């Protein structure tokens, strides 16, 4: 069922399907320690996606810029530990895409309510661009926008369902991507786990 989108980009539909309930339970626990919050962009705009992190580092945005921190600025505490089932899932997906020994040190947890979106961007804040990124979709479906190395490149729209996993590395690592606004729904969320090697 593996789908190669381009060199370095692999779509694994349903790869995490058996783990969905376990992953959602861990998200609840993580959010108990480091609650979801709407961060500010460096330009001062409130992000529509609510975020938290687990692992040795957590991704943050503020008027000061984007950065990885060892401590949650909202709690002053270390970010919650990355559950081993998270790490194992990310490793197995990366291995399937040919990236052996992927050891993520951070997992960003994105929460989309209806209307929330992620505008087109590149992931540029990581120290080691040779490591891939693994993304796991949970909850409501969403339309993922997948572009090329330039903002002006054409985009593909890919519907992501609960349990779908994507691996991005190599030539695809710096591609532009985003998520279309979540359609009005029934009071639930879409979650995305993004596994990265920050340092
Ligand atoms: C394609 N999150 O948090 S990662 C993000 O659905 C982010 O919330 C997406 O983009 C979400 O930065 C899922 C998908 C992703 C990540 C990195 C990529 C796609 C990528 C790097 C290159 C190309
Ligand atoms: Fe991204």
Automatic annotation (TrEMBL):
For this entry, the protein name equals DNA repair protein for alkylated DNA
Q: Which domain of life is it from?
A: Bacteria
Matching Gene3D superfamilies: Alpha-ketoglutarate-dependent dioxygenase AlkB-like (2.60.120.590)
Q: Which UniProt keywords apply?
A: Dioxygenase, Iron, Metal-binding, Oxidoreductase
The residues covered by the Fe2OG dioxygenase domain are 103-199
Required cofactor names: Fe(2+)
Q: Which InterPro entries match?
A: Alkb (IPR004574), AlkB-like (IPR027450), AlkB-like_sf (IPR037151), Oxoglu/Fe-dep_dioxygenase_dom (IPR005123)
């Amino acid at each position: 069922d593996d789908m190669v989108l381009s060199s370095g980009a692999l779509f694994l539909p349903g790869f995490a399907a058996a783990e969905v309930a376990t992953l959602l339970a861990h998200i609840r626990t993580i959010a108990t320690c480091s609650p979801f919050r709407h961060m500010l962009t460096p330009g001062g705009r409130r992000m529509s996606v609510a975020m938290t992190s687990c692992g040795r580092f957590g991704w943050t945005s503020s008027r000061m810029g984007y950065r990885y921190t060892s401590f949650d600025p909202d709690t002053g505490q270390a970010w919650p530990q990355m559950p081993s089932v998270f790490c194992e899932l990310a490793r197995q997906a990366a291995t399937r895409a040919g990236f052996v020994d992927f050891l993520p040190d951070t997992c960003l947890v994105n929460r989309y309510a209806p209307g929330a979106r992620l505008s087109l961007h590149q992931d540029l804040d990581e120290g080691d661009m040779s490591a891939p990124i693994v993304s796991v979709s949970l909850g409501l479906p969403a339309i993922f926008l997948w572009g090329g190395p330039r903002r002006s490149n054409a985009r593909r729209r890919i519907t992501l369902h609960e349990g779908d996993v994507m691996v991005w590395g190599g030539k695809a690592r710096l591609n532009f991507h985003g998520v279309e606004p979540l359609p009005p729904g029934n009071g639930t969320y879409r979650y995305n786990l993004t596994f990265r090697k920050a340092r």
